[in-house]
Design a protein that fits this description.
This protein is of the alpha+beta class. It folds into 4 domains: 3-161 and 509-528, no CATH class; 188-197 and 283-355 and 453-472, Ribonuclease H-like superfamily/Ribonuclease H (Nucleotidyltransferase, domain 5); 205-265, no CATH class; 370-435, no CATH class. The protein is 45% helix and 14% strand. The chain has helices spanning 3-12, 31-35, 42-45, 69-75, 80-89, 110-122, 128-137, 139-145, 152-161, 163-182, 208-224, 229-255, 311-322, 337-345, 418-421, 436-446, 449-455, 458-461, 463-472, 483-505, 513-537, and strands at 63-64, 67-68, 188-193, 196-197, 205-207, 262-264, 271-274, 281-291, 297-303, 327-329, 349-351, 374-376, 381-383, 389-399, 402-408, 430-433. The strands form 4 sheets. Strands 3, 4, 7, 8, 9, 10 and 11 form a 7-stranded mixed sheet that branches. Strands 12-13-14-15-16 form a 5-stranded antiparallel sheet, with no helix packed on it. Helix 10 crosses helix 13. The two termini are 55 Å apart.
Length: 542
């Protein structure tokens, strides 16, 4: 079963009580022979009303043969599971703790459910069925969860109900802890984005005209049988697809771009765009990250198509996690006025190369680009490559909500470089937009040799992040449909990546201490057994 189908069934079953038998690994060791099971007695339940109680067994008593589970994992080099449990148990997880229910059995502890999901992603297992199987068969999962065996529907319900917390609050709390343990910083960052195919099929794309025709057909079918819920749902979905196609066509017309507008029938929020592996066009999303020098992700987001649209929101997230951002390196996809103005308002040193057509041209220029003309603020004029002056002509205009004025009136008729510059009979003209001073400031910064060397760090800071997420964690295609579920899925992948960085950067306990800890642990088990035996033999005779 695919994860999306499993979540759909969970959503349909939401509100129904789960009556399946609860199972878990026995974690009492040999104490169960002396002291009985670990269930609370009636007198122990008194005074707990209104307090959230969890099914949260400890893994310390789980035995693999004659060896306790901790020693079993440590002796085989599988201490990552132990460290993941310690990390999650050290978090507050405030948003996950709901009010105590009036009836029903205890829920599993959020740290155990999170540990199972994150460890599954770390191992490349993403579907709900795979997570269920791993909880029952993987001894490393037994340690993380305490030996509980959650059903796939329970896991899906947890992800669905805690989606808002998983997408941001949990990521922020976890990353803060990772930065603290790795002694990392969030002041010096690099950013990047990639394209990941959506769950919707690439072969079920509709043009704007086809989407509108399908909308009309679904509406007529619904009018003939207005009480049919299936036809009503189909009409609503068809309207959503057609409305998305119309909005994108209007945006394309407003921005002066060309191309065929297509929308995915099964996932209209995804944008049909070229994939990174050059496998053609497909409905996709753009995950975005900011990472520090240790390659720890301190901000993450997902947008259907635009990298810089989430820039301000990601900066807010980064500052909540790692403090004030002082410097950030971005690729040429972020070279626009909005990013420059946001960086300037926050006093952030932006390092970003200028794209080919980022100066106002709609396409790559065939002649001298605008950046070849140097602006003189004192004389309010441009100097062309032939050392001639372009002055304001008085003509003004507005493009994409930003005003501009023309500069020209240079003696271009007798210029030797005229063929490389312009074909206009009146000579070359240049548009100067409101905010071009920020672009010139950034261009001067990027021409500085020290800043250019500083920018070269970007490839080592952020590009390996997506390599690990795609190749090691298996995020080559999203498994959930819709922008909001996709944002939750990617936030989990970013959190898993940060856990991986913690495991790689922070060394494990030194080997000579492991035997000492094992002896102390065996002593504690012996004491527990002694106390249990004493309690057993001191029971009054019946």
């Amino acid at each position: 079963m695919q994860a999306s189908e499993g979540l759909r069934r969970v959503q349909e079953a939401d509100g129904k009580r789960i009556r399946r038998k609860k199972r878990r690994v026995e974690n009492q060791g040999q104490l169960v022979l002396l002291c009985g099971g670990g269930e609370l007695q009636e007198e122990e339940r008194e005074g707990m009303e209104g307090v959230r109680q969890y099914e949260d067994p400890s893994p310390e008593g789980i035995m693999i043969g004659r060896e306790d589970l901790r020693s079993f994992l440590e002796s085989r080099g599988e201490s990552a599971a132990i460290r993941i449990r310690e990390l999650l148990r050290g978090l507050e997880l405030k948003g996950f703790h709901k009010p105590a229910p009036k009836a029903g059995r205890r829920p599993y502890h959020p740290a155990s459910m999170l540990g199972l999901i994150l460890f599954g992603i770390l191992e490349g297992r993403h579907s709900l069925r795979q997570l269920e199987t791993m909880a029952r068969t993987d001894v490393r999962s037994w340690w993380i969860t305490g030996g509980i065996h959650p059903d796939h529907s329970v896991i899906g319900r947890f992800i669905q109900q805690q989606g808002e917390q998983l997408s941001e609050a949990f990521f922020i709390e976890l990353t803060r802890r990772v930065l603290e343990l790795t002694k990392g910083s969030g002041s010096d960052l690099s950013g990047d984005g990639t394209i990941v195919q959506a769950a919707g099929s690439r072969y079920r794309r509709l043009s704007k005209e086809a989407a509108e025709a399908a909308e009309q057909e679904a509406r007529e079918a619904h009018l003939q049988a207005p009480e049919d819920p299936v036809l009503a749902r189909r009409a609503e979905q068809a309207h959503e697809v057609a409305e998305t196609a119309r909005q994108r066509a209007e945006a394309q017309k407003r921005h002066g771009t060309r191309g065929k507008v297509e929308v995915s029938r099964s996932e209209p929020e995804a944008v049909v765009q070229p994939l990174k592996n050059k496998a053609g066009l497909a409905p996709s999303y753009k995950p975005l990250v900011f990472s520090n020098e240790q390659q720890v992700v301190v901000a993450q987001a997902v947008h259907p198509s635009c990298e810089h649209a989430e820039y301000a929101q990601m900066l807010d997230q980064a500052e909540r996690i790692g403090g004030k951002v002082k410097q950030i390196r971005l690729d040429s996809g972020y070279s626009n006025f909005e990013v420059m103005e946001e960086s300037e308002s926050r006093e952030i040193s932006l390092l970003c190369p200028e794209s080919e057509n980022s100066s106002g041209e709609k396409r790559k220029p065939r002649k001298f680009p605008k950046r070849a003309f140097r602006y003189d603020p004192e004389g309010d004029s441009y100097e062309c490559p032939a050392r001639q002056r372009l002055v304001p002509t008085g003509r003004r205009g507005k493009q994409r909500g930003r005003s501009y004025q023309y500069y020209g009136d240079a003696p271009c008729q007798e210029c030797e470089q005229r063929s490389q510059c312009t074909s206009r009979s009146k000579g070359r003209q240049v548009k100067r937009y409101a905010g071009d001073e920020l672009r010139e400031k950034l261009r001067a910064r990027m021409q500085n040799e020290l800043m250019r060397q500083e920018y070269q760090k970007r490839r080592h800071m952020v590009e390996p992040v997506f390599a690990r997420i795609k190749e090691l964690q298996g995020l080559k295609r999203f498994r959930r449909k819709g922008l909001r579920p996709v944002q939750v899925e990617f936030a989990l992948h970013a959190a898993v990546h940060n856990i991986g960085r913690l495991l790689a950067l922070v060394p494990v306990l030194t080997p000579f201490l492991c035997p000492i800890r094992s002896i102390l642990r065996r002593l504690m088990v012996w004491l527990r057994l002694s106390q249990g035996a004493a309690a057993f033999f001191s029971l009054p005779a019946r």
